[in-house]
């Protein structure tokens, strides 16, 4: 395995470790609302394929080798820097969102609108970390299939998810969320 490929897997394992305790705790939470559409399921499966299964096939077999390409070393290092950035943003958003996190769109009985920490700057830091990792992936896994499928799946997922999530948050929190939207950007800080 090449160095940049190892960096990719270190990031995936780090994110699993960051998420594991929340995943365990949230199973005890009572949910008030939970929604997931058929379309979102399909995109989630594509994300799993692009973010995990195809990289695994790329790393463990030579089946995808026909689609390899080779970038200059600096591009791999750029991928490493982006991936480290992605993990930091991923960690900080989990620390700030706590038990309000959910893999699909959910509102728990004790849901709290978080507007502090990284959520005081942008509304979707977890999705920002996914953007950064999806952009780093073709630099770390230099293969047209293992490198790009995640990004291709994430682009439609992001726009559909954010639209549905913000609609749900507005229904649950009303003016409080409207006010929060006026103060923050979605994945980049709001310009003055
Ligand atoms: N979009 C956010 C959160 C992703 S997790 C991010 O990218 O960081 C998805 C869940 O987070 C949703 O089901 C919603 O209930 C919850 N959520 C999103 N924004 C929130 C906020 N500001 N405060 C509390 N919960 C939030």
Uncertain runs are none
Number of domains: 1
Identify the overall geometry: globular
Q: What are the bound molecules?
A: S-adenosyl-L-homocysteine
The major β-sheet equals: 2 strands, antiparallel
- Rounded to an integer, what's the Rg over CA atoms? 18 Å
Tell me the helix content. 55-70%
Indicate the proportion of strand residues. Answer: under 5%
Query: What would CATH call the class?
Result: Mainly Alpha
Rounded mean pLDDT is 95
How far apart, in Å, are the first and last alpha carbons? 46 Å
- Strand order, sheet with most strands: 1-2
Helix/strand order, N-terminal first: HEHHEHHH
**What is the correct CATH architecture?**
Up-down Bundle
Secondary-structure blueprint:
Blueprint: H1 3-26, E1 31-35, H2 38-60, H3 73-97, E2 105-108, H4 125-140, H5 144-173, H6 175-183
Antiparallel strand pairs: 1-2
Helix pairs in contact: 1-3, 2-5, 3-4, 4-5, 5-6
What would your notes on this structure say?
The structure is a single chain. This protein is mainly α. It has a single domain (3-24, 46-183), classed as Four Helix Bundle (Hemerythrin (Met), subunit A). 66% of the residues lie in helices and 5% in strands. The chain contains six helices and two strands, in the order H-E-H-H-E-H-H-H. A two-stranded antiparallel sheet has the order 1-2. Helix 2 (38-60) runs antiparallel to helix 5 (144-173), helix 3 runs antiparallel to helix 4 (125-140) and helix 4 packs antiparallel against helix 5 (144-173). The longest helix is centred in the last third of the chain and has 30 residues, at 144-173. The chain is globular. 23% of the residues are buried. The mean pLDDT is 95.
